[in-house]
C-alpha cells in the first residue's frame, strides 16, 4: 500500500498515461452513448404504439449485455476478415470507444426512458394544450429533466470506466496505446506488480466515489430547483 501511494504521489508517467487514456475513452463513449440513448429514451417515453411492451423488455434486457459478447461482436466486425476490417480500427482506442458505447447506450436509453416517462405523465396535459410537436415535446422533456439525466450519464460513465472484458478483447491491452486502468490492474496483478495495480485501483475507487458524490449533489440540486 505504501508503495502504491508513493507511486501516485511521485507522478509516475505510466500511471498518468493509463489514467488519462481511461478517462478519454470512457468520457468519449459516454458522450456518444448519451447522444444516441437520450433521444431513444425520450421517443419511447412519449410514444404509444403496438409492441411497445416488447420494446421496453428489450431495452431493459440490453442493460445486462455481457461485456465479453459485445467485445466479441465488435472484434468480428473490426477484424481484417470482418466487414469493417478495412478501417484498421482493431486494437486502437477507437475500437475501445465503440465497444463501450455499444455497452452503455442501452443503459442510458432505459434509464432516461423511465425518467422522461414520469415527467411526461406529469406535464402531458400542458404539452397537449400548447399543441407541441413530438420534437418540441422531446426537447422540453430533455431540458426539464436535465439534472436527472445527468445522473443517468454519470451512471453510464461509471459503467464504462469500470469495464474490462470488452475493452481487452478489442483493445488488446497494448502498452502505451490501449492499456486502461481495468486492463492494467488485471495484467499487473498477474505479473505480481501489486504496487501499480493498487495505485490504479485506488484511482478507480476515487473516481467511483467521485461519481457517487456527483450524483448525490445533482439530485440535491434537482430537489432544490423543484421547490423553487
What is the fourth-level CATH superfamily? Answer: MetI-like
Question: Which structural class is indicated by helix and strand composition?
Answer: mainly alpha
Number of helices: 10
Gap between N and C termini? 47 Å
**CATH class annotation:** Mainly Alpha
Main beta sheet strand tally, sense and closure = none
Please tell me the overall pLDDT.
Answer: 86
Strand content: under 5%
Instruction: Provide the CATH topology.
Output: MetI-like fold
Find the count of extended strands (DSSP E, 2+ residues).
Answer: 0
Shape assignment: globular
Q: How many structurally independent domains?
A: 1
Radius of gyration: 20 Å
The helicity comes to: over 70%
CATH architectural designation:
Orthogonal Bundle
Key features of this structure:
about 230 residues, mainly alpha, MetI-like fold, 10 helices
Structure overview:
By secondary structure, this protein is an all-alpha fold. It has a single domain, classed as MetI-like (MetI-like fold), CATH 1.10.3720. The protein is built from ten helices and no strands. Helix 3 packs antiparallel against helix 5 and helix 4 crosses helix 5 (93-129).
Amino acid at each position: 500500500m505504501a508503495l502504491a501511494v508513493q507511486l501516485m504521489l511521485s507522478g509516475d508517467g505510466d500511471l498518468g498515461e493509463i489514467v488519462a487514456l481511461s478517462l478519454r475513452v470512457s468520457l468519449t463513449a459516454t458522450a456518444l452513448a448519451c447522444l444516441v440513448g437520450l433521444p431513444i429514451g425520450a421517443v419511447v417515453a412519449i410514444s404509444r404504439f403496438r409492441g411497445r411492451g416488447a420494446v421496453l423488455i428489450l431495452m431493459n434486457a440490453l442493460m445486462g449485455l455481457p461485456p465479453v459478447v459485445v467485445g466479441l461482436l465488435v472484434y468480428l466486425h473490426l477484424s481484417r476478415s470482418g466487414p469493417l476490417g478495412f478501417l484498421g480500427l482493431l486494437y486502437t482506442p477507437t475500437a475501445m470507444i465503440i465497444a463501450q458505447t455499444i455497452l452503455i447506450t442501452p443503459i442510458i436509453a432505459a434509464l432516461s426512458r423511465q425518467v422522461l416517462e414520469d415527467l411526461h405523465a406529469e406535464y402531458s396535459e400542458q404539452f397537449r394544450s400548447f399543441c407541441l410537436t413530438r420534437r418540441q415535446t422531446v426537447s422540453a422533456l430533455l431540458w426539464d429533466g436535465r439534472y436527472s439525466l445527468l445522473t443517468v450519464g454519470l451512471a453510464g460513465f461509471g459503467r464504462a470506466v469500470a469495464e474490462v472484458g470488452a475493452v481487452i478483447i478489442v483493445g488488446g491491452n497494448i502498452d502505451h496505446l490501449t492499456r486502461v486502468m481495468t486492463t492494467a490492474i488485471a495484467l499487473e496483478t498477474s505479473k505480481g506488480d501489486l504496487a501499480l495495480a493498487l495505485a490504479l485501483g485506488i484511482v478507480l475507487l476515487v473516481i467511483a466515489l467521485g461519481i457517487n458524490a456527483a450524483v448525490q449533489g445533482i439530485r440535491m440540486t434537482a430537489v432544490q430547483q423543484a421547490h423553487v
